[in-house]
Amino acid sequence: MIIEFGHFALILALLVAAAQTIIPAWGAAKRDPRLMAFGEPAAVSQVVLILIAFLALMYAYVVSDFSVANVAANSHSSKPLIYRISGVWGNHEGSMLLWVLILAIFGAAVALFGNNLPAALRANVLSVQSSIALAFLLFILITSNPFERLDPAPLDGRGLNPILQDPALAFHPPFLYMGYVGFSLAFSFAVAALIEGRTDAAWARWVRPWTLLAWMCLTIGIAMGSWWAYYELGWGGWWFWDPVENASFMPWLAGTALLHSALVMEKREALKVWTILLAILTFSLSLMGTFLVRSGVLSSVHAFAVDPGRGVFVLSIMLLFTGGGLALFAYRARDLAQGGIFSPISREGALVLNNVLLTTGCVTVLVGTLYPLALESLTGAKISVGAPYFNMTFVPLMFPLLLAVPLGPLLAWKRADLAAAMQRLIAAGVLALLVMVIAFAVTERGPWLAPFGFAIGVWVMAGALSETAFRIKLGQAPLSESWRRLTNLPRASVGTTLAHFGVGLMVCGIVGTSAYKSEEILLMRPGETKAIAGYELVFRGAAPSKGPNYTEIVGVFDVTRNGNPVTRLEPAKRIYDAPPQPTSEAGIYASWGGDLYAVLGDQQGDGGFAVRLYFHPLVRFIWIGALIMFFGGAISLSDRRLRVGAPQKRSTRAPIGVPAE
Amino acid sequence: MTRKQRRGLLIGLGVGVLSIAAVLMMFAFRQSIVFFHTPSDVAEHKIAQGVRFRLGGLVKEGTVARGEGTRVSFSVTDTIGTVPVSYEGILPDLFREGQGVVAEGILGPDGNFVADTVLAKHDETYMPPEVAKALKEKGVELGKSAEHPGETQTQ
User: Fold this and answer.
1) Helix/strand/coil for A67
2) How far apart are CA A497 and CA A483, in angstroms?
3) Do A393 and B14 touch (CB under 8 A)?
4) DSSP label at residue A621
5) Which long-range contacts (CB under 8 A, 24 or more apart) does A564-567 make?
């Protein structure tokens, strides 16, 4: 009964979405306040209805109601509770429901907190946001209904793919969707601005916090996915340039660019047309990601069951919104007023450079991801584009960007003194060079570019800190004065520093693990020893054991360093009960210097096991860097001036001596 | 600086960076594209030796043999052609006889495919689309056991 109730709520949500798509926009066109006001209650009831549907499905998973086809296909009564819950979004239908739920939450946020938005703008935003929800609700109800029943109901379900039964992966999709779908709000605002034919700084002030929130969630969602792939898949890599990874990375790149260009629009009313275009493109890339993952054109762990009907449907949705948005843009963009003028050497100039490099980087990823699909549909030839392509195209484009990152926040708006900014970065530059020289001296192997990569990472980190040091007059004024300035620093500025610092830390991690990874694949018999990266591993043998819903063979490695015991690694090969699928559980010893990583392979006949051992230097910094970026975003979001729904009348010029951020 | 000059500069910057990227992309594509072939392609086309490619098909039943150390050999088949593959390392968890597999490497002069990477499906119920499509094109009927092994085992 609860299932039918959920299904009914979803159909009601569709009707509400249809009404909400038409009525507020119509009201905005007619300047009728009563019709425009329809948007707010509609958006709230839409989210309540979708939430009811979502909870109904979750209930079916929690109580293991296998008469629901979706539950029977993706769950199992022996699964721990947390994975029964996360199983709701571990499949195509359920994750689609989560997708529209988040979409509706963002829409309702505008309805609830958007009191000080111009009424017509708010009405149009709610209509556009609802039209996206309408398209996806139709998609769910027509092609991917999670509430379909099975008769007769099976005794037990088929279970969730065991590599998805993992804490990091339980929360990876919700964060990822918050990011993907969060950009829908930027899209809705852009389309609403185009419908009205006007946009101003208040528009950017509204869009920026939502974009920032989406960006934070996408950052942490991608980082979680990467961390999961690293420890769960047993390949020892953290990023594979897999098309589906790229599908989430492209909106991230475009969203990062949007975040920076919206800043220019908010502070200086420049780059308006570009920012609007970027908002449309960012969400279009999110839609493309959804299409790539759900159409079955890609082979990946993310690719859901192949169904051409679904693929065509999502493709139509994507073309409708991307095409519609771009057509409207082409039609109306020239009506948007021109903004402020700036010299090339200025904060605006630096942010333009950021945008050019990020979007070009995004284009290279896009081409590398879509080229195999295009080539196959045109010529039938099947190819794969792997990491070497992206290392040769995307990575070089990021070098100038990273070199420029510390300079940006030190430049003044409108017209800046590059030499003065450079001067403030002398300490950071010296530190970076020092690190480069040390890296050259200490490392015996690895590519010659690697020390240079470390220098760039340190440059970005030290540069971010130098900017804060300069602002609080560290060393120039008494410490108490610096402390007072530090506590008075706008949170948005602290957030920028943190986020940039996180980028630098991540660069160091990426360079360290890519250039200096040690890898050994060998056969080990019990009692044998192998040395790797200064550690000695003694293989003690492997023994079977039993877990809650799996059986496993656990290998035991005692690790010593210079004769002192360090840890015991216990990599395992598991076979889950339902579905009966083998997985590898890596044994990992984490330290600041790097991760020691062991994978147990197959038994090779004479009692020996194939074993894969890695040492990944500095690999943790990649995810710690992403976490710092997330917190940087969060601190920035808590800034009073950015607080959601608080557009400010007064000019936001900061006091002299503290450049506005 | 006038608005026109500024716009010119911005466009110049954009076009400049894009053309650098285009050159990089063309260069990278020439070097790093890997083609996908089936075992019968290998028999028909006589693929040049020393060219890296991906070989996809089913792991032929009864051909997986473990050798010295971590060396493994098996055959990949699309039921029309069959190519012997040798690989040194750890096979993916889901590698199994009779199931879809993609191996990347170089065809040796003896007709033996030396793989340095072996990819298997991530999921019991899932076959890499390029394998499924290639097999379909070759007119190979995919049995239920090949397409949905999970189903037959759980019920």
Assistant:
1) coil
2) 16
3) no
4) H
5) A566/A535, A567/A596
- Residues of A (261-300) whose Cβ lies below 8 Å from B: 296-300
Which tens digits make up the pLDDT trace of A531-550?
A: 998 899 999 988 899 888 88
What string of DSSP letters covers A585-603?
E-EEEEETTEEEEEEEEEE
Both structure tokens of A659: 């450049």
**Of A62-66, A469-473, A583-587, where does the model show the most confidence?**
A62-66
Per residue, the 3-state secondary structure of B125-137, as one string, reads: CCCCHHHHHHHHH
Which residues on A lie below 8 Å from B150 (Cβ)?
158, 579-581
Tell me the per-residue pLDDT of B62-83, one tens digit each, with 9 for 90 and over. Answer: 888 887 778 889 999 887 888 9
B78 — phi, psi (to 5°)?
-115, 25
Count the neighbouring beta carbons within 10 Å of the beta carbon of residue A150.
15
The ipTM is 0.77
Beta carbons of A526 and A539 less than 8 angstroms apart: yes
Give the chain B residue nearest A366 (alpha carbons). B25
The pLDDT score that the predictor gives to residue A213 is 94
Residues of each domain in chain B carrying CATH 2.40.50.140: 35-141
- SS3 of residue A579 by DSSP: coil
In tens, the pLDDT along A606-615 reads 778 888 899 9
In CATH, which of 2.40.50.140, 3.40.50.2000, 3.30.70.260, 3.40.50.1820 is domain B35-141?
A: 2.40.50.140
Query: Rounded to whole angstroms, how far apart are CA atoms A75 and A91?
Result: 10
- Nearest CA to CA, how far is B15 from chain A (Å)? 9
pLDDT (tens place) for every residue of chain B, 155 residues total: 677 777 788 888 889 999 999 999 988 888 888 888 888 888 877 677 778 888 888 888 888 888 777 888 999 988 788 899 999 888 887 788 877 888 889 988 888 899 988 887 654 444 555 566 666 666 654 433 333 332 222 22
Of B21, B54, B70, the CB nearest to A393: B21
Q: Pick the residue from chain A with its C-alpha nearest to B90.
A: A601
Phi/psi at A117 (nearest 5 deg)? -80, 150
Q: What is the pLDDT of residues A66-125, one digit of tens each?
A: 999 989 888 888 888 888 898 898 888 999 999 999 999 999 999 998 888 889 999 999
Select from A228, A268, A382, A602 the residue whose CB has the most chain B CBs within 10 Å, as the one to mutate to test that interface: A382
C-alpha distances in Å from residue A211, one per residue of A118, A120, A247, A581: 19, 21, 18, 40
Q: What share of chain A is helix, strand, coil (3-state, %, to 5)?
A: 65, 10, 25
* pLDDT of res. A652: 42
Report CA torsion sign: A58, A63, A67, A73: positive
Q: How far is CA A496 from the centre of its chain?
A: 18
What pLDDT is recorded for position B153? 24
Residue A72 in contact with residue A157, Cβ under 8 Å? yes
**Would you call B13 and A392 a contact, using CB atoms and an 8 Å cutoff?**
no
Tell me the average pLDDT of chain B.
75
B103 in reach of chain A (CB within 8 A): no
Single-letter amino acid code for the residue at B105 = G
Q: Where are the alpha helices (DSSP H) in A144-200?
A: 167-196
Helix (H) or strand (E) holding A576: strand A572-576
State residue A592's pLDDT score.
Answer: 87
- Report the predicted TM-score, pTM, of the whole model to 2 decimal places: 0.90
Architecture of domain A1-161: Up-down Bundle (1.20)
**Per the structure block, which two tokens stand in for A264?**
């220019």
Using CA atoms, how far residue A193 sits from A18, A179, A318, in Å, is: 21, 22, 20
User: Cα B139 vs. chain centroid, distance in angstroms?
Assistant: 20
Which of B15, B27, B32 is the best substitution to test chain A (most A C-beta atoms within 10 A)? B32
Q: Is residue A219 predicted with pLDDT exceeding 70?
A: yes
Q: Domains of chain A: which residue ranges?
A: 1-161, 397-516+620-642, 518-617
